[in-house]
C-alpha cells in the first residue's frame, strides 16, 4: 500500500496506532466476542468504553469538578442553535466575536433566538487578524460570549483565551484545535468540539460545560437539544455514537502516550514552524494573508503567486503522497491541516515538496 500523508481539514488523519488497534479489535473487543459496533450502548462492555473515554479526557485537560462532559451528536453546527437555546435563560442578548466562516454561521443561527451583539470583528481586513481585546464592545448583560478559537477555513487562530468580564461566561467552539494546546478549562463556561479533526471520526461532538449553566433552557426546547437532559442521563438519553466514542477513547489514550496535551503542543509548534518558514522564505512564491501572531497551528492556509499553477501543484503533490491540500472553495489556494495525528515526517515531506516545486516553477 502506497504511503499517503492526508492533510484533509476534516474528517482528518487519525493516529496510525489507533487505526491499527481498532482494526485488531474490530471483530472481537477484549474477548467479548462482539464488535463495538454491535454492542448494546447500555451493556457493561460499552459502559466501560465510555467511562474510560471520559476519565482520560478529564485527565488530559485537567477538567475541574463542577463540569460535565457530554458525548453528543449533530456536529459543532448543531451547537450554533443549542448554545442559545440552552444558555440564554432570562437574558435577551449574546456576544459573539466574528473571526471568519464558522463565527459567521454561529452569528446567523444565534440571531434566530437572541439579539446578537458582534463584540468584535476582523472582517474589515478579510479575517487576517483578531481585534485587540481592549477594543471589543461587550454587552455586560449578555448571556455569554462566544468565539471560535481556530477558524478551520481561513487559518486564523486565537493565541490567547479572552478574559471573562461582568460575569459573562465564555463559550468556545474549539472544534479544530481541541487538545492541540493546553487550556485552563476553568476559564470557560462551555467548550464544544466536533470530533472529526483532533478527536476521532465524524458523528461525535464533545461538550464540556460548567454545571451551573445547566437548567437554563427555554421551556419549548426539543428534549434532544436540552443539555440538562443529556447531563442527567450521562450522555445516554438516546443511543450515542458508540463507535466514534470508542475511537475517541483510543485517541485519548494515544495522546497520553505522546506526553499529553503539553507534549503534543510542542510537536504542533514545530510542525507549524516548518511550514510557515518555507512560506515566508519562498520570496513570494507562496504567501499567507494571516498576520503572524494569529496564524493557525492546525490549518496552514496559503496561496501560490501564480494561481495557474494550483492544479499542477495539487497533482504533483498527490504523486508524491501528499493528499487533500486543496483550499476551501470560500478562500481558494491551499490548506495543509496538520492536526495532532499528522506526524512530523508528513510535514517535512510537504516542506521538501514545496521547496522543490518553487525551484522548478519559480
UniProtKB/TrEMBL annotation:
Belongs to the class-V pyridoxal-phosphate-dependent aminotransferase family. SerC subfamily. The keyword Transferase applies. This is Phosphoserine aminotransferase. Binds 1 pyridoxal phosphate per subunit. InterPro entries: Aminotrans_V_dom (IPR000192), Aminotrans_V_PyrdxlP_BS (IPR020578), Pser_aminoTfrase (IPR022278), PyrdxlP-dep_Trfase (IPR015424), PyrdxlP-dep_Trfase_major (IPR015421), PyrdxlP-dep_Trfase_small (IPR015422). L-glutamate binds at residue 42. The keyword Transferase applies. It comes from Chromobacterium phragmitis. Its EC number is 2.6.1.52. One of its GO terms (biological process) is L-serine biosynthetic process. The modification N6-(pyridoxal phosphate)lysine is found at residue 197. Residues 4-350 form the Aminotransferase class V domain. One of its GO terms (cellular component) is cytoplasm. Catalyzes the reversible conversion of 3-phosphohydroxypyruvate to phosphoserine and of 3-hydroxy-2-oxo-4-phosphonooxybutanoate to phosphohydroxythreonine. Homodimer. Pathway: Cofactor biosynthesis; pyridoxine 5'-phosphate biosynthesis; pyridoxine 5'-phosphate from D-erythrose 4-phosphate: step 3/5; Amino-acid biosynthesis; L-serine biosynthesis; L-serine from 3-phospho-D-glycerate: step 2/3. It is found in: Cytoplasm. Gene3D superfamilies: Aspartate Aminotransferase, domain 1, Type I PLP-dependent aspartate aminotransferase-like (Major domain). GO terms for molecular function: O-phospho-L-serine:2-oxoglutarate aminotransferase activity; pyridoxal phosphate binding. Its cofactor is pyridoxal 5'-phosphate. Pyridoxal 5'-phosphate binds at residues 76-77, 102, 152, 173, 196, 238-239. It comes from the Bacteria. NCBIfam families: PRK05355.1, serC_1. Its main location: cytoplasm. It catalyses: 4-(phosphooxy)-L-threonine + 2-oxoglutarate = (R)-3-hydroxy-2-oxo-4-phosphooxybutanoate + L-glutamate; O-phospho-L-serine + 2-oxoglutarate = 3-phosphooxypyruvate + L-glutamate.
Amino acid at each position: 500500500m502506497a504511503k499517503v500523508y492526508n492533510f484533509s481539514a476534516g474528517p482528518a488523519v487519525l493516529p496510525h496506532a489507533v487505526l491499527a488497534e481498532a482494526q485488531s479489535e474490530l471483530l472481537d473487543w477484549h474477548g467479548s466476542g462482539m464488535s463495538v459496533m454491535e454492542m448494546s450502548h447500555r451493556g457493561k462492555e460499552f459502559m466501560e468504553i465510555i467511562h474510560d473515554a471520559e476519565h482520560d479526557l478529564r485527565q488530559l485537560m485537567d477538567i475541574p469538578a463542577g463540569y460535565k462532559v457530554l458525548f453528543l451528536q449533530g456536529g459543532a453546527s448543531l451547537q450554533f442553535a443549542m448554545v442559545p437555546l440552552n444558555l440564554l435563560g432570562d437574558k435577551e442578548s449574546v456576544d459573539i466575536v466574528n473571526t471568519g466562516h464558522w463565527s459567521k454561521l454561529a452569528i446567523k443561527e444565534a440571531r434566530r433566538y437572541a439579539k446578537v451583539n458582534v463584540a468584535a470583528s476582523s472582517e474589515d481586513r478579510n479575517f487576517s487578524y483578531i481585534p485587540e481585546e481592549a477594543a471589543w464592545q461587550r454587552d455586560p448583560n449578555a448571556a455569554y460570549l462566544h468565539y471560535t478559537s481556530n477558524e478551520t477555513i481561513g487559518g486564523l487562530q486565537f493565541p490567547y483565551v479572552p478574559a471573562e468580564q461582568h460575569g459573562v461566561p465564555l463559550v468556545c467552539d474549539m472544534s479544530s484545535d481541541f487538545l492541540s494546546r493546553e487550556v485552563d478549562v476553568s476559564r470557560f463556561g462551555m467548550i464544544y468540539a466536533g470530533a472529526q479533526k483532533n478527536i476521532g471520526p465524524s458523528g461525535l461532538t464533545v461538550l464540556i460545560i460548567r454545571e451551573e449553566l445547566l437548567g437554563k433552557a427555554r421551556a419549548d426546547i426539543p428534549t434532544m437539544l436540552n443539555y440538562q437532559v443529556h447531563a442527567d442521563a450521562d450522555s445516554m438519553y438516546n443511543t450515542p455514537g458508540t463507535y466514534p466514542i470508542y475511537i475517541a477513547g483510543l485517541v485519548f489514550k494515544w495522546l497520553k502516550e505522546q506526553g499529553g496535551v503539553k507534549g503534543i503542543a510542542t510537536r504542533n509548534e514545530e510542525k507549524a514552524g516548518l511550514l510557515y518558514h518555507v512560506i515566508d522564505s519562498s520570496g513570494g512564491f507562496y504567501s499567507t494573508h494571516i498576520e503572524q501572531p494569529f496564524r493557525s497551528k492546525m490549518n496552514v492556509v496559503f496561496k501560490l503567486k501564480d494561481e495557474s499553477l494550483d492544479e499542477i501543484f495539487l497533482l504533483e503533490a498527490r504523486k508524491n503522497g501528499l493528499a487533500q491540500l486543496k483550499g476551501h472553495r470560500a478562500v481558494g489556494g491551499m490548506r495543509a491541516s496538520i492536526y495532532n495525528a499528522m506526524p512530523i515526517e508528513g510535514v517535512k515531506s510537504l516542506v521538501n515538496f514545496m521547496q522543490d516545486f518553487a525551484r522548478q516553477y519559480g
